[in-house]
TrEMBL record:
It comes from marine sediment metagenome. The lineage of its organism: unclassified sequences, metagenomes, ecological metagenomes. This is Outer membrane protein beta-barrel domain-containing protein.
Length: 161
């Protein structure tokens, strides 16, 4: 579950918004170096200036590779999604810290509509603290956003297995 605060452009400037998003991710690890995953998410936002309630849904397929080096684990996750009626490619650079990884730092670029032309729209920077094998908390920000003002995301994760 993620709770996001973000700004969206309107004709008279920007407005303040708060949204809630839920994600379900199913993944399979072939070995310590390679895994695939599928993600589905739905969300609802409230745009206070216009009192809109934009609903959104997103589905994605991804592949992740990493190189466990002990206390440091560099990785790469590439995701192909369908969001806002556009195919989006999102490569993510990951950096895990800890023998039993307790912190993940990352950066992700979203390339919307890449089938008709590469258009990098946003770069996310984020951190995820793994409090236990089942619980995690994360915070992130979309920066260098061309279309919209920066977005801030806070969330809690629960791992079934």
């Amino acid at each position: 579950l993620a709770v996001a605060t973000y700004h969206v452009p309107i004709t008279s400037g920007t407005s303040y918004s708060i949204g809630v998003r839920g994600d379900i991710v199913v993944g399979y690890g072939f070995n310590p170096y390679l895994k695939v995953d599928a993600r589905g998410s739905v969300g609802l936002g409230t745009q206070f200036s216009g009192m809109q309630h934009p609903f959104f849904a997103d589905a994605a397929l991804g592949v992740q590779t990493c190189l466990p080096l002990g206390p440091l684990t560099p990785g790469l996750h590439v995701e192909l999604s369908y969001y806002l009626r556009e195919v989006t490619l999102s490569p993510t650079v990951l950096f895990g810290i800890g023998k039993k990884e307790w912190l993940t730092l990352g950066g992700r670029m979203h390339m919307h509509g890449f089938l008709i032309g590469w258009d990098p729209v946003a770069v996310d920077a984020f951190a995820c603290a793994h409090l236990s094998p089942r619980y995690s908390v994360f915070a992130g920000a979309e920066i260098f956003y061309i279309t919209y003002a920066p977005a801030i995301t806070l969330g809690v994760g629960y791992h079934l297995k």
